[in-house]
Amino acid sequence: MQTMSSTDSITVDEGYDADNPAPVIEPPRARTGKTPKATRTNFELYGWLFMRLSGILLVVLVLGHLLIQLVLDGGVSKVSFAFVAGRWASPFWMAWDLIMLWLAMLHGANGLRTIINDYAQRDNTRFWLKMLLYTATVFTVLLGTLVIFTFDPNIT
Amino acid sequence: MATPTLDKVSSPGQDAGHLVTVTFRIRRFNPEVSAEASWQDFEIRIDPKERVLDALHQIKWEDDGTLTFRRSCAHGICGSDAMRINGRNRLACKTLIKDITEIKDGVATKPILVEAIKGLTVLKDLVVDMEPFFQAYRDVMPFLITKGNEPTRERLQSAEDRERFDDTTKCILCAACTSSCPVFWNDGQYFGPAAIVNAHRFIFDSRDEGGEQRLEILNDRDGVWRCRTTFNCTDACPRGIEVTKAIQEVKKALITRRF
Ligand code: HEM
Ligand code: SF4
Ligand code: FES
C-alpha cells in the first residue's frame, strides 16, 4: 500500500497470507429499491418441497437400483440385453425405472437450476444456461420414457 | 502552586510486562490511490486482554491515521463494527485478542487478519456500503402493522407469546450473518439472513397483523427458499441468535399456511 507511516515496525505485505489465504469475494449484484420484481407464486415453495420429497423416494429407488444392477446376482457382469428384457417384462420394474427416471431428472434439473441461480453473474448467462439445462432435461426424460414404453425384447 | 501533582510520573517502558507483540494484517483499500486492495502489517504492543477494536484504535491513533473503520458504541450494541477477523465474521468490539491468537514468549505466533465483511462493496479499508443490506431489511417491513383503531391502553401480550419471537428481537443489524452467507456472496438479490430474522420478529409477534404480507414477500424467488441451511449465519451472529432456526421457522410457517 501507498500510505506508510514513519514507524519502522510497520511493514507492507504485497501478497496474501501464505498459510491462511482469504479468498476475495467480489460484491454480488446488489439489491435496490426496485429489485427484485415480485412474482407472487408458490413456485419456489413447491420446488423446495419437491427436492425433499423426491430425495426421500430417490434413496429407495436409486439405492435399490444400484443394488440390483451392480451388487446382487454376480454384480455388473450379469447385466445384458436379456437381463434388461427380463426385468422390463414386469410392469413393476417398468414403473420403478420410469418413476426413478422422472424423479432423478427433475430433482437433478431443479438442483442445477438452483446452482445456476446462485453462480451465474449476468442475466444473459443465467438465461442461456437454464435454456440449455431445460432442453437437455426434456430430451433425456422424453427419450428415456419412450424407451421404457416402446422396448421390444424381440428386436433383431 | 496549589494544583496537586502526582508524586510519581510513570515513564514509558515501565509496568509494561503485561503487553505482548501482535501483528495485525489488515486488508487496506483506498479507491483514490489504487483500484487494488492489499494487506498491510502493523506490529503493535498491546494487552492481550484488550479487544481487536482497541488494537484498531491504537493503530489509527498512533501509527496510521488513514486506517478507516466504523464503530460507535464499542460495546456490542450498535452493530457497526462487524468485520472478518481471521476469516470469521465477528464484532471487533467483542473479540478479545487472547481468544483468537496464541502467544509465546510475549509474541503472538501468527498475525491476526482483519478485513471488511464480504458480499458488500468495500468503500474504504474496513468500511462497506451497507445500503443493499438495509434495502433488504426495509423490504420485509420491520415495523408493527395493525388494523382497526388504536387501543387506548398498551397492547398486552402473554409471556408465552413474547417468548415466541424473543430470540429474533436481539438483532443489532450488524450484517455479520448476511455477509457470511454463501448464497448472498453469489447473488445479493437474496434477502439474506438478517432481513429474515427481522421479518421473523414480527411474523411471530401476536400483536402484529402484517405477518401474511411478510410471508408473501419471503415466499418469492429471493426469499427463504434460497437458504441452503449452511449455518454460517448462526455461527457468525455475535448476539447468539439461532438464525438458521428462525429461517426454518419461516419456511415452516409458509408450508403449513399452504397445506
Ligand atoms: C439419494 C437420494 C437423494 C437425496 C436424499 C437427495 C436430497 C437432496 C436435497 C434435500 C436437496 C436440496 C438441498 C438444499 O436445498 O440445500 C438436493 C439437492 C440436489 N440434488 Fe439431490 N438427493 C438425492 C439424489 C440425487 C440425484 C440422484 C441427483 C442427480 C440426478 C441429485 C442432484 C441434486 C442436485 C444437483 C442438487 C442441488 C445441489 C445444491 O442445492 O447445492 N440428487 N438433493
Ligand atoms: S442476526 Fe445476528 S449477525 Fe445477523 S444482523 Fe442480526 S445481530 Fe448481526
Ligand atoms: S462498536 Fe457498536 S457493536 Fe461494536
UniProtKB/TrEMBL annotation, chain A:
GO molecular function, one term: metal ion binding
Gene Ontology CC: one annotated term: membrane
Record keywords: Heme, Iron, Membrane, Metal-binding, Transmembrane, Transmembrane helix
SUPFAM superfamilies for this protein: Fumarate reductase respiratory complex transmembrane subunits
Pfam families assigned: Sdh_cyt
Superkingdom assignment: Bacteria
Transmembrane stretches, start-end: 49-72, 92-110, 131-151
Cellular compartment(s): Membrane
Ranges of compositional bias, category Polar residues: 1-10
Entry protein name: Succinate dehydrogenase / fumarate reductase membrane anchor subunit
Lineage per the UniProt record: Bacteria, Bacillati, Actinomycetota, Actinomycetes, Kitasatosporales
Automatic annotation (TrEMBL), chain B:
UniProt key word Transcription regulation: no
Record keywords, A-Z: 2Fe-2S, 3Fe-4S, 4Fe-4S, Iron, Iron-sulfur, Metal-binding, Oxidoreductase, Tricarboxylic acid cycle
Residue span, 2Fe-2S ferredoxin-type domain: 31-120
Catalyzed reactions per annotation: a quinone + succinate = fumarate + a quinol
The protein's name: Succinate dehydrogenase iron-sulfur subunit
Cofactor note: Binds 1 [2Fe-2S] cluster. Binds 1 [4Fe-4S] cluster.
4Fe-4S ferredoxin-type domain location: 161-183
Family: Belongs to the succinate dehydrogenase/fumarate reductase iron-sulfur protein family.
Natural source organism: Streptomyces harbinensis
Gene Ontology BP annotations: respiratory electron transport chain; tricarboxylic acid cycle
One GO molecular-function entry: 3 iron, 4 sulfur cluster binding
NCBIfam families (alphabetical): dhsB, PRK05950.1
EC number: 1.3.5.1
Pfam families reported for this sequence: Fer2_3, Fer4_10
Cofactor: [2Fe-2S] cluster; [4Fe-4S] cluster; [3Fe-4S] cluster
Biological or metabolic pathway of the protein: Carbohydrate metabolism; tricarboxylic acid cycle
UniProt enzyme class: oxidoreductase
InterPro entries referenced in this protein's UniProt entry, alphabetically: 2Fe-2S_ferredoxin-like_sf, 2Fe-2S_ferredoxin-type, 4Fe4S_Fe-S-bd, 4Fe4S_Fe_S_CS, Beta-grasp_dom_sf, Helical_ferredxn, SDH/FRD_Iron-Sulfur, Succ_DH/fum_Rdtase_Fe-S
